[in-house]
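subagent[fold] <- orchestrator: predict structure for attached chain, return tokens only, no commentary.
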Amino acid sequence: MQDFTALDGAILIDKPSGPTSHDVVDAIRRKFGIKKVGHCGTLDPNATGLLIIVLGRGTKLSEKLMGDDKVYEGTIKFGEATDSYDSDGELTASLPVPPLTLDQLNDEAAKFIGDQMQVPPMVSAIKKGGVPLYKLARKGIEVEREPRLVHIYNFRFTDYAEPIGTFKLACTKGTYVRSVAHDLGQKLGCGAHLATLRRSVSGKFDVADAKPLDDVLNLSTAELEKRVIPFLKLAAA
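subagent[fold] -> orchestrator:
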């Protein structure tokens, strides 16, 4: 059996707003000349936070790590709905926000906790007939999406200053937090969209242990090797 190298494993990136998860993979592949690079769980371009990047033989653990539960923090803007359910989309409705208290928001948020069938947004990478939904959405085509079973462990607002609510949410893989924001807005009758999102935890890994993307890209290969979580430790996570 081939011995593992210092670059077989994973690194924890604190992704900035802007680049796609694939952009991060490409940047690391180019900078360090590593043939096999992947990520474990897509973050939308405007989302920030923990992105687990697998290197070399660490890519064999992608599916395992992708299946872990996640924790997110972010803000929801009430009174405005968008076609993508987040701030990147086109405005589809603008309605007055009813008087809301933090307690009222948390009463509504509590109704989302548990198993639920969630309809993915049209602006997503899920494929229909081999074509990503976001490509159909760009052409103004909307198709029926199959609801998916997801589980929300916790969903709680920590602050509300109209029209922005600050929240924390823990969920299973495949949960669209922007769909949660959209659905909450529909229930309140005023519409809403996800304004900001940050992933803080994925499985046993925390963003507190991650390094900003620019800092990683400024490392030498030897410095990068010191930050790699080894394959065997990763497999046991």
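orchestrator: received. Logging for downstream: The first strand starts at residue 9 and ends at 15. The chain has two domains: 9-67+204-236, 70-201.
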